[in-house]
Amino acid sequence: MTSDTNNKPMANPLIVLREEFDDWAILFDPDTGDASAINPVSVFIYKHLDGKHTVPDIVAKLRKECEDVPENAEAEVQEFIQQLLDKGYAGYEKQF
Amino acid sequence: MPNVIKSPRSLDIDITSRCNLRCKYCYHFSGPGDVDTDLPKEEWLRFFVECGHYGIMGLSLAGGEPFFRKDLPELLEGIIANRMRFSLLSNGTLIDDAWAKYIKETRRCNYIQVSLDGSRAEVHDQLRGKGQFDKAVAGLQHLQRHGVPVTVRVTLNKLNYHDLENIARFLLEELGLPAFSTNAASYMGLCKLNDQEIGLDVAERSALMAVFADLVKRYPGRFSANAGPQADLRMWSEMERARLGGLAPAHPTGALTACGCVFDRMAVRADGIMTPCTMLSHMEMGRINHDDLREVWQNHPLMQSMRARNEISLKLFDFCSSCNYINYCTGNCPGVAYELTGEVDHPSPDACFKRFLGAGGVLPEIN
Ligand code: SF4
């Protein structure tokens, strides 16, 4: 994260979260045609990338909603979000 | 029954019934959705908003001829604005340089499929009309020049089956296409009227399979087919191999398992009526912008009955019950089955291996 960003990631509105079944989903980039399947926990995280939640906020919600959330959940959530950032599927709102 | 996804991944849409050509085997111009007037652009644009809302990833626009619609760019803009991609199935004759450039710039085109039925004008034009070969090839080359993904579909029939080797050489070597697909004129639409002139007989199908057996060695991986002699060759060879070797089939068989489309995609006729498939245009399930797309997909009884087809054992059909291939057969396309028997829940006589052999058909030697 750079200094001109806040710490509340946002999903890229051009990417489609396509819910399939059993709470799994596909993230679809219509510009490239790339589609990747994500599991229910990742769907939960993705839905909270709304520019209002920090990673600790998301992890706290996850612990509340799901059972057996591992100790290192924050690192894993951060890693998933980093992957999204790298692919351009999420970003941070610039602070003006 | 396998899990059903919440909404279809893609839709096959007849965006118009109108066309600049009247090809002899077109599956249109005699069906329930074949109307003279197009649905207004506003209706489609409204529907595309719903498609985007439900996360549909791709729309395949066919017709009729999609490029016949003057408002096609606005329709494509509607698809793009709703975060989808598109493909277009075309006769190629109306595609000029400006179209190809525009399509490329959208960045959302999966592919354009151009129909080409011969290696030269004499063959192609007897099916599609004088001068159409040159126009279709020109259209295809405009697309190639602009780097638009382009595929070619060759519909094999009595008037062009002798040209298959030349077609392969023309498309793969002269035009430099990576691959092309084939099917055969099916007993639908205008082909029903022209069946005597167009439909392949058993000897012609056998001859085509022998040519394919050779071509796939010469151009490995450069052909595909979901129907027609090439698909028959693949499927029947698998069935014969499985029977001779007592092997378990690679996919579910012994029942009407052929059609997987209804677990993945759905269709919309040119008049806005939703159907399970373009080949089953009589199965009306509601109208766009009146009936909820996701509700139709998930719960319409016709959609459910199509998905339950794969539980119908082939043993229930007298003709199949004594067949040596029954444990390896999928019953094939329900659309063709309906056209030939009047029943959707029936094996397709057209792709029946037992019937083919009984009529003197010959499968090329298999490994
Ligand atoms: S009779 Fe034909 S359709 Fe029936 S099982 Fe045999 S090959 Fe398949």
What does this 3D model show about the protein?
Chain A has helices at residues 40-47, 55-65, 73-87, and strands at residues 5-11, 16-19, 25-28, 35-38, 90-94. Chain A has 3 helices and 5 strands, in the order ββββαααβ. Chain A is globular and about 35 Å long. Chain A has a single domain (10-89), classed as Outer Surface Protein A, domain 3. Chain A is α+β, with helices and mostly antiparallel strands. Chain A is 35% helix and 25% strand. Chain B has 367 residues and is α/β, with parallel strands linked by helices. Chain B has helices at 41-53, 72-81, 97-106, 121-128, 132-145, 164-174, 189-193, 195-198, 202-218, 229-245, 293-299, 301-308, 318-321, 334-341, 353-358; strands spanning 10-14, 58-62, 85-90, 109-115, 150-156, 180-184, 223-224, 265-268, 274-275. The model of chain B has no long low-confidence stretch (mean pLDDT 91). Chain B has 15 helices and 9 strands. Helices cover 39% and strands 12% of the residues of chain B. Iron/sulfur cluster binds next to α13 and α15 of chain B.
Give a short overview:
The complex is a heterodimer of chains A (about 100) and B (about 375). Chain A has about 100 residues and is an alpha+beta fold.
Summarize this structure as a short list of keywords or feature phrases:
heterodimer, A: 96 residues, alpha+beta, Outer Surface Protein A, domain 3, 3 helices, 5 strands, B: alpha/beta, globular, binds iron/sulfur cluster
Topology (SSEs and partners):
The complex is a heterodimer of chains A (96) and B (367).
Chain A: E1 5-11, E2 16-19, E3 25-28, E4 35-38, H1 40-47, H2 55-65, H3 73-87, E5 90-94
Antiparallel strand pairs in A: 1-5, 2-3, 3-4
Helix pairs in contact in A: 2-3
Chain B: E1 10-14, H1 41-53, E2 58-62, H2 72-81, E3 85-90, H3 97-106, E4 109-115, H4 121-128, H5 132-145, E5 150-156, H6 164-174, E6 180-184, H7 189-193, H8 195-198, H9 202-218, E7 223-224, H10 229-245, E8 265-268, E9 274-275, H11 293-299, H12 301-308, H13 318-321, H14 334-341, H15 353-358
The complex binds iron/sulfur cluster (SF4).
The site of iron/sulfur cluster (SF4) has 13 residues of chain B, from helix 13 and helix 15.
